[in-house]
Amino acid sequence: MNLALLFDEDFVAQNRVVLRGRRLEHIKSILRVSTGDQLPVGRVNGQMGLGKVIKLTDSETELVVVLDQQPPTPLPLTLILAMPRPKMLRRILQTSATLGIKDIWLINSYKVEKSFWQTPWLSDENLRENLTLGLEQAKDTAMPRVHIRKLFKPFVEDELPALLKGKQALVAHPGTSAPCPTHLNSPTALCIGPEGGFTPYEVVKLEEAGCQSVHLGPRILRVETAVPVLVSRLFDACL
Ligand code: SAH
């Protein structure tokens, strides 16, 4: 937690928050702050700044916050991901939030196990928790939006063409002939397949909707590895 993300319910006055639970534990045992110390904070979907600890007990801490800095620029990326297995989903959500992705679509695909859709990690509360961990890692406040589409064909035929308007659209698919481009830095949509890959039919449907198939070389990466590798190849995050 390189920044404590603050929610409306944390505010007890315009510039004062009370934190308990996970954030309190982290502040005490990892950051080891004392009364009077300052730590980075940010308001969800708002500005970032510093919080000064004015009270610290076993059960809560109270901070006076000054929020006067903008969060980092979001990545211009719409990530369209075949629903991963639950434990991978958690990590991918956190990593995606850390990387600055703000628009995430979880879609069905032939090789997605039906049981994956039953995971409690898809509840609003759990999505928010994992995205929060990713934002706190990055020092960002802009909460990504997650859209869930449990049917592949209606999504690809009815929604995807409009979603891709004005964007360069790619599907990462091993064995295809075009290498993944670099230095895009303009609105982009990227589809990533499930552990077993997209089927040839699905790749054709994604291409018909406007996606270009691209590869990352002969090594097959796990989805959780493919996400950061693709993002760092596509965008110049450190410029
Ligand atoms: N079993 C599949 C690979 C699935 S890897 C196969 O052999 O084709 C899961 C997803 O990660 C893929 O659908 C793709 O979107 C992405 N991916 C992993 N490695 C890749 C590579 N070398 N090139 C392009 N995409 C890759």
TrEMBL record:
Q: What is its EC number?
A: 2.1.1.193
Query: Which PANTHER family does UniProt cross-reference here?
Result: 16S RRNA (URACIL(1498)-N(3))-METHYLTRANSFERASE (PTHR30027:SF3), RIBOSOMAL RNA SMALL SUBUNIT METHYLTRANSFERASE E (PTHR30027)
* Top-level division of the source organism's lineage: Bacteria
Q: Just give the chief location class.
A: cytoplasm
- According to its UniProt entry, this protein's organism is Marinobacter antarcticus
Tell me, in a sentence or two, what this protein's role is.
Specifically methylates the N3 position of the uracil ring of uridine 1498 (m3U1498) in 16S rRNA. Acts on the fully assembled 30S ribosomal subunit.
Reaction(s) catalysed by this chain, per the record, are: uridine(1498) in 16S rRNA + S-adenosyl-L-methionine = N(3)-methyluridine(1498) in 16S rRNA + S-adenosyl-L-homocysteine + H(+)
A Gene Ontology CC term for this entry?
cytoplasm
Family annotation (InterPro entries): Alpha/beta_knot_MTases, RsmE, RsmE_MTase_dom, tRNA_m1G_MTases_N
This chain's protein is named Ribosomal RNA small subunit methyltransferase E
Please give the Gene Ontology molecular function terms for this protein.
rRNA (uridine-N3-)-methyltransferase activity
Gene Ontology terms describing biological process: rRNA base methylation
Query: Can you tell me which family this protein belongs to?
Result: Belongs to the RNA methyltransferase RsmE family.
Which residues are in the Ribosomal RNA small subunit methyltransferase E methyltransferase domain? 72-233
